[in-house]
Every structure is written in structure tokens, then in C-alpha cells.
Amino acid sequence: MSFLVLDPTPEKAPPQGQLAPRLASLEGKTVGFISNGKEGTKGFFSHLERLLREEHGVGQVVSRTKSNYSAPADAAIVAETKGWDAVISGIGD
């Protein structure tokens, strides 16, 4: 008896994206939080916002929650990120 083993990986690697340039500082910047809407993100983002403001001088924090926790962020949220200096996406399982 013989077995045929199939490799499900693609033959070519997908194109690599480019990393966004790092900010020199968070001082006075706008940071956006994108939550998946699960309970665990509330406390995490609340604590993170405090740290960012107190220790890094972040000027504004914008919080948004996806309409579906298992789907990509809504188009309106993605469009809004263009006005933010940094984005943090979190899950709360």
C-alpha cells in the first residue's frame, strides 16, 4: 500500500508588506485602538491608555470597536485610521 502526501502550502510565498516607519516619539500623537469587542479588551485598553498618556505623553486616544469580532475592521474604521499617528489592534479572549 502507498500513500500520496499533498503539501497544502503555495508554491510561491505571498508578497511581503512594508513596515510603517517608526515614530520618533508618541508625545502629542493620536493613537487609535481597534477592539474586537470582546470583554477582555476593555480593561487592557483602559490600562494601556493610562500608560500611553502618563508615560509617553500621548495627546489623544481614539477607541473603536469592530462590528464583528471575527472579521476585519469595518471600512469606516479603516478610513478613520488615516488620521491617526499609530494604531493598536487588540483581541480580548
Q: How do the strands and helices of this protein lay out in sequence?
A:
Elements (H helix, E strand, L loop, with lengths): L29 E6 L4 H17 L3 E6 L9 H6 L5 E5 L3
Parallel strand pairs: 1-2, 1-3
Strand content: 15-25%
**Structural class per helix/strand content?**
alpha/beta
Radius of gyration equals: 19 Å
Uncertain stretches: none
Distance separating the two termini: 45 Å
Strand order in space, largest sheet: 2-1-3
The largest β sheet comes out as: 3 strands, parallel
Number of helices in the DSSP assignment: 2
Mean pLDDT: 91
Order of helices and strands: EHEHE
Counting DSSP E segments of at least 2 residues, the number of strands comes to 3
Approximate helicity band: 10-25%
Bulk shape? elongated
Give a structural overview:
There is one protein chain. Helix 1 links the parallel strand 1 and strand 2. It contains 2 helices and 3 strands. It is elongated, with a radius of gyration of 19 Å. It has a domain of 52 residues. A 3-stranded parallel β-sheet has the order 2-1-3, with helices on one face. The longest helix is centred in the middle third of the chain and has 17 residues. It has 93 residues and is of the alpha/beta class.
